Amino acid sequence: MKLVFKKTEGLTDRPFHYCPGCTHGIIHRLIGEVLEELDLIDQTIGIAPVGCAGFCENYFACDMIGAAHGRAVAVATGAKRARPDRVVFTYQGDGDGAAIGLAETISAAARGEKITSIFVNNAIYGMTGGQMAPTTLVGQRTSTSPYGRDSGQMGFPLDMPKLLNQVDGAAYVASVSVDTPQEIMKAKKAIKKAFQVQLDGLGYSFVSILSTCPTNWGVTPVEALSWLQEKMKPYFTLGELKVPQDDITVDRDSAQNREEKNTVRIPNASNEKEEEGGDE
Ligand code: SF4
Ligand code: MG
Asked: How far apart are CA 238 and CA 161, in angstroms?
């Protein structure tokens, strides 16, 4: 019998706790597949956030560390600096990454930390009861904006990829979605590229992923996908906003190739002699 689909080795066998129709599960699968395809499961450290994805440490098959709320990028910075031989990524929601963790995210990007952030934007605080998040759309009803977000009083949504695109140390910034099979494939490609940028030592990589929260949006899973398409996609910038100037290839050999290509040759004594001799 021909095998057409196999659960990735990048995920454990524990069943997800996410609500029906929540797209966190799809994003987990994509990360697991990328870790497996790049042969990184045994050399990766993931940083789990606080929020709905707080239990993701049970699902990814790599080493995981749980961080305090908003501190995932700071913990990732420490992990990467202590173990530069490891691939380090954070998995964070919009409450974690764009509210309490905003300073960490921007500062790590500015420092060009060689880590990867997967940022899941569902325009709301999920686990704590559906409060307004920095990413909540104008007019969107939440438990703390029951009449809809009023921009005069509550301001405007933060478009994180657009913001990080301005930061020099950010080497790769992409904004994707997981609402259709085509978008899911694009999202996987972006996640893979982000890890590759880290492997190539090029700087901070950030992938924002538009995701659903049918529970707190108060809609069915199918309606949630429509809501994401009709409301979120027109507002948030989508696509690859920033790519390193060099071509990024998505195979494991390229890190070594790049290292060889970029090696600055310092002449040793015998080289210098030869050069001097050549001048004579
Ligand atoms: Fe997903 Fe929302 Fe449920 Fe959290 S509350 S698991 S984000 S659907
Ligand atoms: Mg959220």
From this structure: 8
What global pTM score does this model have?
0.88
Q: Is 167 in the pocket of ligand 1 (CB under 6 A)?
A: no
Helix locations, 83-213, DSSP H: 94-95, 102-111, 151-154, 160-164, 181-199
pLDDT at 274 over 60: no
- Report the DSSP beta bridge partners of residue 93: 120
Find, among 118, 123, 160, the residue nearest to 138 by Cα: 123
Summarize pLDDT for 235-264 with one digit per residue, the tens: 999 999 999 975 444 444 444 444 444 333
What per-residue confidence (pLDDT) applies to 96? 95
Extract long-range pairs of 258-264: CB within 8 Å, 24+ residues apart.
Answer: 258/200, 258/201, 259/201
Q: Of all protein residues, whose CA lies closest to atom 1 belonging to ligand 1?
A: 22
Nearest to 202 by CA among 112, 86, 264, 262: 112
User: Given ligand 1 and candidates 28, 135, 211, 213, which is best to mutate, with the most ligand atoms within 8 Å of its CB?
Assistant: 213
CA distance 76 to 89: 7
Residue pLDDT, tens place only, 73-105: 999 999 999 999 999 999 999 999 999 999 999
Residue 258 backbone phi and psi in degrees, to 5: -65, -40
Q: Is 214 in the pocket of ligand 1 (CB under 6 A)?
A: yes
pLDDT tens digit string along 142-193? Answer: 999 999 999 999 999 999 999 999 999 999 999 999 999 999 999 999 999 9
